[in-house]
From TrEMBL:
GO terms for molecular function: 4 iron, 4 sulfur cluster binding; catalytic activity; metal ion binding. SUPFAM superfamilies: Radical SAM enzymes. This is Radical SAM/SPASM domain-containing protein. Its cofactor is [4Fe-4S] cluster. NCBIfam families: TIGR04053 family radical SAM/SPASM domain-containing protein. Keywords: 4Fe-4S, Iron, Iron-sulfur, Metal-binding, S-adenosyl-L-methionine. It comes from Salipaludibacillus keqinensis. Residues 7-217 form the Radical SAM core domain. It comes from the Bacteria. The keyword Iron-sulfur applies. The lineage of its organism: Bacteria, Bacillati, Bacillota, Bacilli, Bacillales.
Length: 375
């Protein structure tokens, strides 16, 4: 049914163009620095990388950082990719680099979407989280101008103890800003991210249920990152709505999509089946190191030494991540393991083993539930 085999080709590629950034975000995966690294992939190396990415059934490409706008050649790189037919979006930091000229250039070269981070509904929360005063106001002003340019806007939000009690206000803001997609990240303790900043497993479940209810009443789409078990919550709700309490219904990832009856990729580029670290997803660092994701810091190779398709398809690390039968603990016996699989990044961060169970999931698989003893 699906045209893309994740064993061969990823659905999405994240390229960290640079780790340079002017912000000091509390959760920063990259532990970003103020200056660019001298060993960053060059423009010519970037073109070779884009050629390899395009050869893998032309997945989506996202430029991230650090701050991609810290590279003077960012729009040259973007144009090269877009001219090849690659769909490119970018997640720049809200700094003075986000000028009108930069936004106009993004529109000119054909970026498909501009993504900004908003981690609070007001300046107090957001600027504290981002470690820089004025970031909230700068983001609001940039969004206004992007609307004038008619460029689709995505908002990324990291759910943590800093903002979990203000999600309703966040959702109202996303709607007011007329964004096409709210991408909700659930904190993984890596980089500057701390375990103490994570919401609890029970809070994860409550937020998932709230997100599902929200998705039924808002005009924007919702996507989660490092929250594969949100798929399970969506599927459970859809199964209850469709079949009531009856058992024996098939668990399908299509049911986790808003328009899942068709199984097609929607206009926002959402995958028709779930991605996970190394399974439909690949991350390239600023120096060319290849990881299953930016949140799972186990290196599988470097594109300077080995082509990306070879690393993705043949690395033992990537192959193991694409085999749910290797999952341990309750993830290994869960009936949702082929459509959920839990966050491999969080499993690694909390246990040191990327194949262990998702440690922040409260669901008990059917095979582990105690049967009632009838006397």
């Amino acid at each position: 049914m699906f045209s893309r085999d994740y064993h061969e080709d990823p659905f999405i590629v994240i390229w960290e163009l640079t780790r340079a950034c002017e912000l000091k975000c509390l959760h920063c995966r990259a532990e970003a620095q103020y200056r660019r690294h001298p060993q960053e992939l060059t423009y010519e190396e970037g073109k070779k990388l884009i050629d390899d990415i395009h050869s893998m059934n032309n997945p989506m490409l996202v430029f991230t950082g650090g701050d991609p706008l810290m590279r003077e050649d960012v729009f040259d790189i973007a144009k090269y990719a877009i001219d090849k037919g690659v769909r490119v979006s970018m997640t720049p930091s809200a700094t003075p680099n986000v000028t009108k000229e930069a936004m106009e250039k993004a529109k000119e070269v054909g970026l498909s979407r501009w993504a900004f981070s908003l981690d609070g509904h007001n300046a107090e929360i957001h600027d504290h989280f981002r470690g820089t005063s004025g970031s909230f106001d700068l983001t609001m002003n940039a969004i206004t101008y992007l609307h004038e340019l008619e460029m689709p806007i995505q908002i990324n939000t990291v759910i943590s103890n800093y903002n979990v009690n203000h999600l309703e206000e966040m959702a109202q803001l996303i709607e007011q800003l007329d964004c096409v997609l709210w991408s909700v990240f659930f904190l993984v303790p890596t980089g500057r991210g701390q375990e103490k900043d994570m919401i609890s497993p029970v809070q994860h479940e409550k937020v998932f249920q709230w997100l599902y209810e929200l998705s039924t009443r808002v005009p924007f789409d919702i996507k989660t990152t490092a929250a594969q078990h949100y798929r399970r919550v969506v599927i459970q709700n859809k199964m209850r709505e469709k079949f009531g309490a009856r058992n024996g219904t098939e668990i399908r990832y299509e049911d986790a999509l808003k328009n899942g009856n068709t199984g097609q990729i929607d206009g926002l580029g959402r995958a028709p089946k779930g991605v996970n670290d190394g399974n439909g997803f690949v991350f390239i660092s600023h120096t060319g190191d290849v990881y299953p994701s930016g949140l799972l810091p186990i290196k599988a190779g470097n594109v300077r030494d080995t082509p990306l398709p070879v690393i993705y398809r043949e690395s033992d690390l990537f192959k193991s991540l694409r085999n749910p039968d290797l999952y341990k603990g309750k993830c290994g016996v869960c009936e949702f393991k082929h459509v959920c699989g839990g966050s491999r990044s969080r499993a690694y961060a909390m246990t040191g083993d990327y194949l262990e169970s998702e440690p922040y999931c409260v669901y008990i698989p059917k095979s582990l539930r105690k049967k009632k003893i009838i006397n």
